[in-house]
Amino acid sequence: MIGGRLVGGPGNCDVESERIVGECKLRKDLGLETVMEQVEEHYRTGKICAVFSKKKGKNIRETIVSVRFPDFLALLGGEDGTDLLHDNDDQEK
User: Fold this and answer.
1) Environment class of residue 25 by beta-carbon count within 10 Å: exposed (0-12), middle (13-18) or buried (19+)?
2) CA 17, CA 40: separation in Å to the nearest integer?
3) Is residue 4 part of a domain?
4) What is the C-alpha separation between 22 and 52, in angstroms, rounded?
5) Which one, 22, 26, 31, 45, has the greatest CB density within 10 A?
6) pTM score
7) Who contacts 79 (Cβ-Cβ below 8 Å, separation ≥6)?
8) Which domain holds residue 63?
């Protein structure tokens, strides 16, 4: 979906593309989900919802930004990205 390849293996990232290096995690519960839902309650049409996480005492440049995957695709390519999402399960593609 991001035009990358699976890398995996010890000491490597999980996914790599021309512009992105990623680590993939699958968790039963995701604490971040509650915070994202809070943001989405205040959603305005045409806006991308994001969660900004910064550890106290750290520089603002170390902030982690989390967005939903279709929004991430939209930020990368200017498209909605939902046409690339065909399944509703947890399998990696």
Assistant:
1) exposed
2) 29
3) no
4) 18
5) 22
6) 0.67
7) 73
8) 26-84
Q: Work out how many domains the chain is built from and give that number.
A: 1
Q: Residue 73 burial by CB count (10 A; 0-12/13-18/19+): exposed, middle or buried?
A: buried
Q: Is residue 14 part of a domain?
A: no
Quick check: helix, strand or coil at residue 35?
helix
Q: What pLDDT does 65 receive?
A: 93
Counting every residue, how long is the chain? Answer: 93
pLDDT in tens, the chain (93 residues): 566 666 777 777 778 888 888 888 888 888 889 999 999 998 877 889 999 999 999 999 999 999 998 998 888 876 554 444 444 444 444
- Residue type at 60 in one-letter notation: I
Tell me whether residue 19 is in a domain.
no
